[in-house]
Amino acid sequence: SSSVEPSRQRLGVAETWNRNVLGTHDDKITAMDLRDNHLITASADCTLRLWNMETGNRERTFVGHGNRVTGVAFLSSSSVVSTSHDCSIRVWSRRSGRGTEVYAYCPLNCIK
Questions:
Q1: C-beta neighbour count of 55 within 10 angstroms
Q2: Which of 1, 5, 24, 56 has the fewest beta carbons closer than 10 A?
Q3: Residue of 36, 35, 41, 85 whose CA lies nearest to 60
Q4: Could you tell me which residues are beta bridge partners of residue 91?
Q5: What are the tens digits of pLDDT across the range 64-108?
Q6: pLDDT of residue 14
């Protein structure tokens, strides 16, 4: 019946989401933020990952921190900010994946 299909579709996305997110970072997820239909995850593996919540697919990996990423937040629809134990704050372009770095005096633990 047609009423069962949306539930199966949601279940399929949830299964894809769990498999993709849990298996993609090489270390634990340390922070995350949600905006519209996108989730950004930060990890002790020094990366950020941008996820499409509707499909469960990863859209981009952000690489550049030299130590565990400890905080992440969406700044706007086009940029993300992250903090790290490498004593930097980075503002990332969601489109290009490039980050601009600003140094702090000590390791940073969170954004919000």
A1: 13
A2: 1
A3: 41
A4: 81, 100
A5: 999 999 999 999 999 999 999 998 999 999 999 998 878 777 777
A6: 53
Distance CA 81, CA 29 (A): 16
Q: What angle do CA 16, 21, 23 make, to 5 degrees?
A: 95
- Give the HSE-up count for residue 111: Cα atoms under 13 Å, Cβ half-sphere: 21
Kindly write down the DSSP assignment for every residue of the chain, as one continuous string.
-TTHHHHHHHHHHHHHHHHHHHHH-SS-EEEEEEETTEEEEEETTSEEEEEETTT--EEEEEE--SS-EEEEEE-SSSEEEEEETTSEEEEEETTT--EEEEE-SS------
User: Among positive and negative, which fits the CA dihedral 92, 88, 47, 54?
Assistant: negative
Contact 64, 74 (CB under 8 A): no
pTM for the full model?
0.77
Q: Which two tokens stand for residue 99?
A: 């980050």
Asked whether residue 40 carries a pLDDT value surpassing 50, the answer given is yes
Query: Could you tell me if 76 and 40 are in contact, meaning their C-beta atoms sit under 8 angstroms apart?
Result: no
